TrEMBL record:
FAD dependent oxidoreductase domain ranges (all copies): 8-389
The organism of origin for this protein: Aureobasidium pullulans EXF-150
Gene Ontology terms for molecular function: flavin adenine dinucleotide binding; saccharopine oxidase activity; sarcosine oxidase activity
Keywords from the UniProt entry: FAD, Flavoprotein, Oxidoreductase
Homology family: Belongs to the MSOX/MTOX family.
Protein name per its UniProtKB record: Oxygen oxidoreductase
Keyword Isomerase annotated: no
């Protein structure tokens, strides 16, 4: 539906915005401009501003396993552009002996989608007990109490910040334009016009924080957790939610010791990766229902990431991570956490993405949102779905269509099968942090 020379604006140079620029450029679109509020890419506001993200194929919904991963995403990670950032370390998934039934059920349901699949059959090893886990990770010296799960040798992780940086450099070299920074690159408004001879609206571009107007035939909003600040109606069904991220600073020999360990997900506690050889940081994330920041009817990330209050993790998450370390690496369990932060993503009630035209905009405004905390692995292929959407002029995949439901005001995250616990509000976490700090004084 769009001619390949007409101007296209992508707002957001995160995982999905850059992927979209890559695929539009590869399919011959010559007039693509990416607006990014950060001064450089990777942006500290991106959910992918991180050392690593899990790249795994198992999902309870085989749609994502089959369509996205087996056929394309993992293959995309093996191409020259993405390959330097992909590490196929294998993926250990387990629950502890103390896991709630929900965590065990989720593990078995996700495993069922790949266990008998022809592509994975010979690549999955069920595991029970400490000795069997140590066959795959001899470095796990902790008790591994009641560990039961499997090893998937096809999966691993990607270095997410480096992947964003690599994609940016490539795109700049092939002529995609970038407008960066809090003034020139930050979109503050989507601009509409009324179509002649009707009352219908059409989006004609954006205004940026410096007051400039940028015209486009198609505007694509790929702002992750921040998107509802530009398109508030999205916030009814895709809300900003955050999880904690923490690191332990290792010495050279500790880092060398853990090189090559599988990406490991203990479904009732949290997950971790092999350490980053450059910074020697060992990253951990607790698993939970996440935290929201509801204000005036919308959950959005606080507008500034740095400095505090976001550079901490809640006490309940710290406890989970310390338990995880006691189970796996007791020698690390009391080490200080460094580089702690809350990382924001756009969440939907059923964890399905939204990749669609915004209704009543005459197919001039596209939203890429609802990554639901599992969208980074799709970076090599998200843009392909967007070019297909543009070419077809409609979203045929029901899971990814714009929704008219309003899911605000309910704590539905605790019902999501792969999350344990309940949602809390950022303001309560900040008060709790202040209380704990003053109790320590
Ligand atoms: C703690 C955590 C762990 C995760 N783990 C995994 C995992 O293991 N595997 C996995 O696949 N996924 C994981 N994810 C999810 C993954 O990070 C996201 O799915 C992915 O980053 C979504 O990409 P995006 O482009 O939609 O958003 P983002 O990557 O967040 O990018 C949005 C971009 O928009 C920019 N922006 C915002 N506002 C404006 C504005 N007004 N103007 C211009 N630019 C703007 C931001 O600076 C940012 O660069 C995790 C997420 C979190 C938070």
């Amino acid at each position: 539906m769009s001619d390949k020379h007409s101007p296209i604006i992508i707002v957001g140079g995160g995982a999905w915005g850059l992927s979209t620029a890559l695929h539009l450029n590869a399919s011959g679109h010559t007039n693509v401009t990416v607006f990014e509020r950060a001064q450089t890419i990777p942006s500290p506001y991106s959910a992918a501003y991180d050392l690593n993200k899990i790249v795994r194929p198992e999902y309870e919904d085989p749609f994502y396993t089959d369509l996205a991963l087996i056929q394309e995403a993992i293959e995309g990670w093996k191409t020259p552009l993405f390959g330097p950032y992909f590490h196929q370390t294998g993926y250990l998934v387990t629950t502890t002996g103390a896991a709630p039934p929900k965590a065990t059920r989720h593990l078995h349901e996700a495993l069922a989608t790949i266990q008998h699949h022809p592509v994975f059959k010979s690549k999955i090893t069920p595991l029970a007990g400490r000795d069997q886990f140590r066959d795959f990770a001899w470095q796990f010296t902790g008790p591994l109490s009641g560990f039961s799960g499997y090893f998937n040798r096809l999966a691993g992780y990607a270095h997410s910040s480096d992947a964003l940086h690599g994609a940016w450099l490539h795109l700049a070299s092939v002529g995609v334009k970038f407008i960066l920074g809090e003034s020139a690159g930050k979109a503050t408004e989507v601009l509409y016009e009324t179509l002649p001879s009707s009352s219908h609206l059409r989006v004609v571009g954006i205004r940026t924080a410096d007051g400039k107007v940028h015209q486009a035939k198609t505007t694509i909003v790929a702002m992750g957790a921040h998107a509802a600040s530009l398109v508030p109606s999205l916030g009814k069904f895709a809300m900003a939610r955050c999880w904690s991220v923490a690191h332990v600073q290792l010495t050279k020999s500790e880092c060398d010791l853990l090189r090559g360990i599988p990406t490991t997900n203990v479904r009732d506690l949290g997950f971790f990766f092999e350490p980053d050889p450059e910074t020697r940081l060992f990253k951990l994330c607790p698993l939970g229902a996440g935290f929201t920041n509801n204000q005036q009817g919308l959950s959005l990330p606080p507008s500034e990431r740095l400095p505090a209050p976001q550079d901490f993790i809640p006490a309940e998450d710290e406890r989970k991570l310390r338990r995880l370390l006691q189970e796996v690496f007791p020698w690390m369990a009391n080490r200080p956490f460094v580089d702690q932060k809350l990382c924001w993503f756009a969440d939907t009630i059923d964890s399905n993405f939204c990749i669609d035209f915004v209704p009543d905009t005459h197919k001039s405004l596209i939203i890429l949102s609802g990554d639901s905390g599992h969208g980074f692995k799709m970076m090599p292929i998200v843009g392909k779905w967007v070019t297909e959407l543009l070419a077809k002029g409609k979203q045929d995949e029901e899971r990814w269509q714009w929704r008219t439901v309003d899911t605000r005001g309910e704590d539905w995250a605790k019902a999501v099968s792969w999350r344990i616990g309940s949602t809390r509000e950022l303001k309560d976490l900040i008060s709790e942090k202040k209380r704990l700090e003053s109790a320590r004084l």
